[in-house]
Protein backbone atom coordinates (compact mmCIF):
# COMPACT_ATOMS: atom_id res chain seq x y z
CA UNK A 1 0.00 0.00 0.00
CA UNK A 2 2.76 2.43 0.98
CA UNK A 3 6.50 2.14 0.49
CA UNK A 4 9.24 4.53 1.51
CA UNK A 5 12.52 4.04 -0.29
CA UNK A 6 15.78 5.49 1.00
CA UNK A 7 13.87 8.51 2.26
CA UNK A 8 15.78 11.48 3.62
CA UNK A 9 14.28 14.75 4.84
CA UNK A 10 15.00 17.65 7.13
CA UNK A 11 14.88 21.40 7.58
CA UNK A 12 17.25 23.71 5.69
CA UNK A 13 20.72 22.22 6.05
CA UNK A 14 19.86 19.82 8.86
CA UNK A 15 19.01 16.24 7.92
CA UNK A 16 16.44 14.76 10.30
CA UNK A 17 15.46 11.44 8.74
CA UNK A 18 18.04 9.37 6.95
CA UNK A 19 17.79 6.50 4.56
CA UNK A 20 14.39 5.22 5.71
CA UNK A 21 12.97 2.13 4.04
CA UNK A 22 9.53 1.27 5.32
CA UNK A 23 6.51 -0.64 4.11
CA UNK A 24 2.83 -0.72 5.05
CA UNK A 25 0.75 -3.52 3.58
CA UNK A 26 -2.99 -3.44 2.86
CA UNK A 27 -5.10 -3.24 6.01
CA UNK A 28 -2.00 -3.15 8.19
CA UNK A 29 -1.44 -0.92 11.23
CA UNK A 30 2.21 0.05 11.50
CA UNK A 31 3.50 1.88 14.57
CA UNK A 32 6.49 4.18 14.60
CA UNK A 33 8.18 4.48 17.97
CA UNK A 34 11.20 6.43 19.15
CA UNK A 35 12.33 8.95 21.74
CA UNK A 36 11.38 12.62 21.55
CA UNK A 37 12.99 14.49 18.70
CA UNK A 38 14.20 11.49 16.67
CA UNK A 39 12.17 12.50 13.60
CA UNK A 40 8.80 10.73 13.82
CA UNK A 41 6.70 13.81 13.04
CA UNK A 42 9.14 14.80 10.30
CA UNK A 43 8.62 11.37 8.74
CA UNK A 44 4.82 11.73 8.76
CA UNK A 45 5.06 15.24 7.30
CA UNK A 46 7.22 13.87 4.49
CA UNK A 47 4.73 11.09 3.77
CA UNK A 48 1.91 13.66 3.67
CA UNK A 49 3.95 15.95 1.39
CA UNK A 50 4.07 18.86 3.84
CA UNK A 51 7.86 18.55 3.80
CA UNK A 52 9.60 17.69 0.51
CA UNK A 53 12.20 14.91 0.85
CA UNK A 54 15.82 15.64 0.04
CA UNK A 55 16.21 12.15 -1.36
CA UNK A 56 14.26 8.92 -1.85
CA UNK A 57 10.73 8.02 -2.85
CA UNK A 58 7.21 7.78 -1.47
CA UNK A 59 5.25 5.11 -3.33
CA UNK A 60 1.52 4.91 -2.64
CA UNK A 61 -0.61 2.22 -4.27
CA UNK A 62 2.20 1.50 -6.75
CA UNK A 63 2.41 5.16 -7.82
CA UNK A 64 5.33 7.46 -7.10
CA UNK A 65 3.81 10.42 -5.23
CA UNK A 66 7.13 11.89 -4.02
CA UNK A 67 6.55 15.16 -5.85
CA UNK A 68 2.78 15.43 -5.32
CA UNK A 69 1.21 18.12 -3.16
CA UNK A 70 -0.49 17.30 0.17
CA UNK A 71 -3.90 18.12 -1.40
CA UNK A 72 -3.29 15.55 -4.15
CA UNK A 73 -2.31 12.93 -1.56
CA UNK A 74 -5.45 13.71 0.44
CA UNK A 75 -7.62 13.25 -2.66
CA UNK A 76 -5.88 9.91 -3.24
CA UNK A 77 -7.11 8.83 0.18
CA UNK A 78 -4.33 9.70 2.61
CA UNK A 79 -5.69 11.20 5.83
CA UNK A 80 -3.54 12.99 8.41
CA UNK A 81 -4.15 13.56 12.11
CA UNK A 82 -1.32 15.89 13.16
CA UNK A 83 0.37 15.99 16.53
CA UNK A 84 -1.32 18.54 18.78
CA UNK A 85 -4.60 18.00 16.87
CA UNK A 86 -4.55 21.36 15.05
CA UNK A 87 -8.29 21.73 15.09
CA UNK A 88 -9.74 25.18 14.39
CA UNK A 89 -10.65 26.59 17.83
CA UNK A 90 -13.02 29.29 16.55
CA UNK A 91 -14.96 26.94 14.27
CA UNK A 92 -17.67 24.68 15.63
CA UNK A 93 -17.25 20.93 15.81
CA UNK A 94 -19.47 20.59 12.74
CA UNK A 95 -17.48 23.22 10.81
CA UNK A 96 -14.23 21.46 11.71
CA UNK A 97 -15.68 18.27 10.24
CA UNK A 98 -16.68 20.14 7.08
CA UNK A 99 -13.04 21.22 6.68
CA UNK A 100 -12.12 17.51 6.73
CA UNK A 101 -14.65 16.85 4.00
CA UNK A 102 -12.87 19.36 1.75
CA UNK A 103 -9.72 17.21 1.82
CA UNK A 104 -11.24 14.15 0.18
CA UNK A 105 -13.86 13.29 -2.40
CA UNK A 106 -16.82 12.55 -0.09
CA UNK A 107 -19.78 14.95 -0.36
CA UNK A 108 -21.43 14.43 3.03
CA UNK A 109 -20.48 13.70 6.61
CA UNK A 110 -21.43 10.09 7.26
CA UNK A 111 -23.17 9.18 10.51
CA UNK A 112 -20.55 6.55 11.39
CA UNK A 113 -18.20 9.35 12.50
CA UNK A 114 -20.71 10.18 15.23
CA UNK A 115 -21.12 6.48 16.00
CA UNK A 116 -17.40 6.33 16.69
CA UNK A 117 -17.42 9.54 18.73
CA UNK A 118 -20.98 10.26 20.01
CA UNK A 119 -19.75 13.25 22.03
CA UNK A 120 -19.10 15.11 18.76
CA UNK A 121 -22.79 14.88 17.89
CA UNK A 122 -23.78 16.28 21.28
CA UNK A 123 -21.21 19.08 20.90
CA UNK A 124 -21.81 19.74 17.20
CA UNK A 125 -22.43 23.45 17.73
CA UNK A 126 -19.69 24.03 20.29
CA UNK A 127 -16.47 25.74 19.29
CA UNK A 128 -13.56 23.34 18.86
CA UNK A 129 -11.52 25.42 21.30
CA UNK A 130 -14.06 24.78 24.07
CA UNK A 131 -13.61 21.00 23.95
CA UNK A 132 -11.30 19.12 26.34
CA UNK A 133 -7.95 17.86 25.02
CA UNK A 134 -9.32 14.34 24.61
CA UNK A 135 -12.43 15.57 22.81
CA UNK A 136 -10.26 17.69 20.50
CA UNK A 137 -8.24 14.58 19.68
CA UNK A 138 -11.46 12.73 18.86
CA UNK A 139 -12.48 15.65 16.65
CA UNK A 140 -9.10 15.58 14.87
CA UNK A 141 -9.50 11.88 14.14
CA UNK A 142 -13.13 12.35 13.05
CA UNK A 143 -12.09 15.22 10.76
CA UNK A 144 -9.72 12.84 8.98
CA UNK A 145 -12.32 10.05 8.87
CA UNK A 146 -15.06 12.12 7.18
CA UNK A 147 -12.94 12.05 4.01
CA UNK A 148 -13.16 8.23 4.10
CA UNK A 149 -9.39 7.70 3.86
CA UNK A 150 -7.83 4.47 2.67
CA UNK A 151 -4.64 5.32 4.50
CA UNK A 152 -4.44 7.14 7.82
CA UNK A 153 -1.43 8.85 9.42
CA UNK A 154 -1.90 9.45 13.15
CA UNK A 155 0.71 11.40 15.12
CA UNK A 156 0.63 10.51 18.83
CA UNK A 157 -3.17 10.37 19.18
CA UNK A 158 -2.96 9.35 22.85
CA UNK A 159 -0.48 12.03 23.97
CA UNK A 160 -1.72 13.74 27.13
CA UNK A 161 -5.15 12.14 26.92
CA UNK A 162 -7.09 10.65 29.82
CA UNK A 163 -7.22 6.82 29.93
CA UNK A 164 -10.93 6.39 29.11
CA UNK A 165 -10.53 8.39 25.88
CA UNK A 166 -7.34 6.49 25.03
CA UNK A 167 -9.44 3.34 25.34
CA UNK A 168 -12.09 4.79 23.01
CA UNK A 169 -9.45 5.77 20.45
CA UNK A 170 -8.00 2.26 20.62
CA UNK A 171 -11.43 0.76 19.93
CA UNK A 172 -11.97 3.11 16.98
CA UNK A 173 -8.60 2.19 15.45
CA UNK A 174 -9.36 -1.51 15.82
CA UNK A 175 -12.87 -1.05 14.43
CA UNK A 176 -11.63 0.88 11.38
CA UNK A 177 -9.14 -1.88 10.75
CA UNK A 178 -11.84 -4.56 11.09
CA UNK A 179 -14.56 -2.91 9.03
CA UNK A 180 -12.70 -1.08 6.29
CA UNK A 181 -9.54 -1.79 4.35
CA UNK A 182 -7.84 1.28 5.81
CA UNK A 183 -4.11 0.98 6.51
CA UNK A 184 -2.47 3.14 9.14
CA UNK A 185 0.79 4.54 10.35
CA UNK A 186 0.60 5.47 13.99
CA UNK A 187 3.29 7.36 15.87
CA UNK A 188 3.02 6.20 19.45
CA UNK A 189 5.14 6.10 22.61
CA UNK A 190 3.04 3.70 24.70
CA UNK A 191 4.15 0.11 24.05
CA UNK A 192 1.01 -1.43 25.58
CA UNK A 193 -1.20 0.62 23.24
CA UNK A 194 1.06 -0.34 20.32
CA UNK A 195 0.77 -4.03 21.16
CA UNK A 196 -3.02 -3.72 21.25
CA UNK A 197 -3.43 -2.07 17.85
CA UNK A 198 -0.35 -2.66 15.67
CA UNK A 199 0.67 -5.44 13.31
CA UNK A 200 4.22 -4.24 12.83
CA UNK A 201 6.55 -1.74 14.48
CA UNK A 202 9.52 0.36 13.45
CA UNK A 203 11.67 2.06 16.06
CA UNK A 204 13.52 5.15 14.90
CA UNK A 205 16.61 6.63 16.46
CA UNK A 206 18.58 9.62 15.14
CA UNK A 207 16.38 9.59 12.05
CA UNK A 208 17.03 5.98 11.04
CA UNK A 209 15.23 2.68 11.59
CA UNK A 210 17.07 0.78 14.33
CA UNK A 211 14.53 -1.99 15.02
CA UNK A 212 11.60 -3.47 13.11
CA UNK A 213 9.46 -6.49 13.78
CA UNK A 214 5.98 -7.98 13.64
CA UNK A 215 4.27 -7.09 16.90
CA UNK A 216 3.72 -10.68 17.99
CA UNK A 217 7.48 -11.25 17.73
CA UNK A 218 8.77 -8.19 19.57
CA UNK A 219 10.81 -8.33 22.69
CA UNK A 220 9.66 -5.57 25.08
CA UNK A 221 13.13 -5.11 26.58
CA UNK A 222 14.67 -4.53 23.17
CA UNK A 223 12.07 -1.89 22.36
CA UNK A 224 12.47 -0.20 25.76
CA UNK A 225 16.24 -0.20 25.22
CA UNK A 226 15.82 2.01 22.13
CA UNK A 227 13.22 4.20 23.81
CA UNK A 228 15.44 4.91 26.80
CA UNK A 229 18.97 5.39 25.41
N1 LIG B 1 10.02 23.22 11.51
C1 LIG B 1 11.22 22.82 11.95
N2 LIG B 1 12.33 23.52 11.64
C2 LIG B 1 13.57 23.12 12.07
N3 LIG B 1 13.77 22.01 12.81
C3 LIG B 1 12.72 21.27 13.15
C4 LIG B 1 11.38 21.63 12.74
N4 LIG B 1 10.50 20.70 13.22
C5 LIG B 1 11.27 19.81 13.90
N5 LIG B 1 12.59 20.14 13.85
C6 LIG B 1 13.70 19.39 14.46
O1 LIG B 1 13.74 18.11 13.84
C7 LIG B 1 14.06 17.10 14.81
C8 LIG B 1 12.99 16.02 14.77
O2 LIG B 1 11.74 16.57 15.18
P1 LIG B 1 10.39 15.73 15.10
O3 LIG B 1 9.30 16.63 15.57
O4 LIG B 1 10.27 15.12 13.77
O5 LIG B 1 10.69 14.60 16.17
P2 LIG B 1 9.68 13.59 16.88
O6 LIG B 1 10.38 12.29 16.92
O7 LIG B 1 8.36 13.65 16.25
O8 LIG B 1 9.61 14.20 18.34
P3 LIG B 1 8.40 14.26 19.41
O9 LIG B 1 8.25 12.87 19.94
O10 LIG B 1 8.91 15.21 20.45
O11 LIG B 1 7.20 14.76 18.69
C9 LIG B 1 14.18 17.81 16.15
O12 LIG B 1 15.53 18.04 16.41
C10 LIG B 1 13.46 19.11 15.94
O13 LIG B 1 13.99 20.14 16.74
TrEMBL record:
InterPro entries: AAA+_ATPase, ABC_transporter-like_ATP-bd, ABC_transptr_urea_ATP-bd_UrtE, BCAA_Transport_ATP-bd_LivF, P-loop_NTPase. The keyword Nucleotide-binding applies. Residues 2-229 form the ABC transporter domain. SMART domains: AAA (SM00382). The keyword ATP-binding applies. GO terms for molecular function: ATP binding. This is Urea transport system ATP-binding protein. It comes from Aquibacillus albus.
Amino acid sequence: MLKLQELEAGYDESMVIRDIDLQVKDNQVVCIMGRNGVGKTTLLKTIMGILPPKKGKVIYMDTDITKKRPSHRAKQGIGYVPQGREIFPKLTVYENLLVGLEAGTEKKIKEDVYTYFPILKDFKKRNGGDLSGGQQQQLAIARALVANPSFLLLDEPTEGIQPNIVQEIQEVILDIKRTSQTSMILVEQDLEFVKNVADYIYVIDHGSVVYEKAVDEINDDEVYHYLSV
